[in-house]
Amino acid sequence: MRLRFTIIAVVGALLSIAIASSASAAVPRSFYGIVPQTPLTATDIDRMGQGNVGTLRIIINWSVVDPSPAADDYNWASIDTIVADAARNGITILPFLYGTPTWVVEGLDERSCAPAKCALFAPSKAAALDAWTVFVRDAVARYGPNGEFWTLNPDLPQVPITAWQIWNEQNSKSFYLPRPNVGKYLKLLQAANAAVKSVDPNAEVVLGGMAELAGSKKAVPGPDYLQSLYRRKGAKNHFDGVAPHPYGAKLKGVKQQVNNFRKAMKRGGDAGADLWVTEIGLGSARGGNPLNRGPKGQAKGLKQAFGYFTRSAGRLNVRAVTWFSWMDSPTRICAWCATSGLFTQQLAPKRSWDAFTRFTGGS
Length: 363
Known about the structure:
Number of strands: 9
Strand order of the largest sheet: 6-8-9-1-2-3-4-5-7
Shape: globular
CATH architecture: Alpha-Beta Barrel
Number of helices: 13
Mean pLDDT: 93
Distance between the termini: 34 Å
Order of helices and strands: HEHEHHEHHHEHEHEEHEHHEH
Strand content: 5-15%
Helix content: 40-55%
CATH class: Alpha Beta
Radius of gyration: 21 Å
C-alpha cells in the first residue's frame, strides 16, 4: 500500500512538471522575467542565463545617465554593461525610464528639492519635458534596433530593446512627487511616446507599473488611477501596454487585482491592450507582513501566479511576468522585500528558484 501511494505521488509530481512545461511551451522565453533589487554583476546575469530567464527589468535612471545640462556628458557605462551581459545570455531587457536630474528639477522646473528626493519629481514644465524628450529619444537611439550600442559592439548577439516603460508606480508619492497627478503624468507619457516612436515606430510603450495600494494614504489605487487616465481624451493613443503590480499573499488576491485593472481597461475601451506584469513577488521570511510566506510558501506562490499568467497569456494578452526580486538584499526597502529574492545574498538558490525554472526549463 505504501509503495502504491509512493508511485502515485511520483506520477503526480511528474504530471505536474509536464503540465507546467507544456503550458510554458506556448509562451516565448521573454515571458518569464526578473526584477533586481540589488546591483547586478556579470555572475548574476550569467546565472540568469543558466536559468533561461527571458526578461530582465532594469531602471535606466535619467539622473545618473545625464547628470548635467551639458550636451555631451551622457554616462551609459553601467547600462551598457548590463545590456551586454544580458545579450550574451539571450536575455531581453525591459527598462523603465525614471529619475529626474537635479538640474532639470531645480533649473527647468524651478522646484526646490532635497538631494535624496529630486529624482522623484517628474518633469512638468515645457522646458523640463523637452529635456525628457531628448533623453528618451537618445536612450532608444542607443539601445533600440540598429542602435548606437549595437553598432559599437558588433560581436554581441543583437538583442535590442523594443519595449520601454515610462516611470514607475506613478500612482504613489513614494515614486512620483510632489503627488500623483494623472494630467501631468499624461504629458510625461505623451512626450515619451512621441520620442520613442520617432526613433523606433514599432517599439511598445508601456505605462509605469502600478500597484493597487488600496488604503494607502500616499497613493491612488492603481485601477482608479488607470481609469482616470483613460478619461483623458486620447490618452490611450500614447501607450500600448498596461503594467499592474498585483502583489498578493494568495493567488486569489493576485487575480482580483488583475481583474480590477482589466475592468478599468474595458471601461476605457482598451481591453485589447497588452498586459505587462512588471512586478510580482513574495518574501521567504516568516511573519511580520502578509507577503512573507516562508521559503515553501514563496515557492508555492510563484508557482501559482506564474501558472495563472501562463494559462491566461492569450486571453489577457500577457506579454511578460517579472518576479521581484532576483536576490535578497541587506537593505530593507519595504516590509517584506529583503527576502523577496529567488536567491540568497550569497547567490544560493531557494525553493522559489526551482519553481521559477520549472517554467523556464533552465537550471
